[in-house]
Amino acid sequence: MKIYLFTLNGCEHCTELKQKLDNLSIIYHDVEITRNRKIWNLIVDKTNNDVVPSVFIQRDNDDNGLIYIPGRDFLEIDEIVEIIKKSLE
């Protein structure tokens, strides 16, 4: 299982999520959207949302997984942290 965070430099919510995951020793890949425009555009096209921090949880055996969008799938950073933790169980 791989976890990808789509973040934006200067985004307080992005920083908070990364700090909480770091504190829990959860490994993730930080995809800063201004430096990874192509992949970010694919996420936006697929979800019709351009809100950060968005989270993609990729299954181990393929490229499929679930994308979690703030405001749609979680309202608070602690909610997405719990979703990530449960996905790792």
Structural class, by secondary structure, is: alpha+beta
Q: Classify the oligomer.
A: single chain
In spatial order, strands of the major sheet run 2-1-3-4
Low-confidence stretches: none
Our count of domains comes out at 1
Shape: globular
Count of DSSP strands? 4
User: What is the mean predicted local confidence, pLDDT?
Assistant: 94
Largest sheet: 4 strands, mixed
Order of helices and strands: EHEHEEH
Number of helices: 3
Name the beta content range. 15-25%
- Rounded to an integer in angstroms, the radius of gyration calculated over CA atoms is 12 Å
* Percent range of helical residues: 25-40%
Which helices and strands appear, and what pairs or packs with what?
Layout: E1 2-7, H1 12-23, E2 29-32, H2 37-47, E3 54-58, E4 65-68, H3 77-87
Parallel strand pairs: 1-2
Antiparallel strand pairs: 1-3, 3-4
Helix pairs in contact: 1-3
Description of the molecule:
This protein is of the alpha+beta class. It has one domain (11-57, 65-87). The chain is 38% helix and 21% strand. The protein has helices spanning 12-23, 37-47, 77-87, and strands at 2-7, 29-32, 54-58, 65-68. It has a 4-stranded mixed sheet, sandwiched between helices. The longest helix has 12 residues, at 12-23. The protein is globular. The N and C termini lie close together (10 Å).
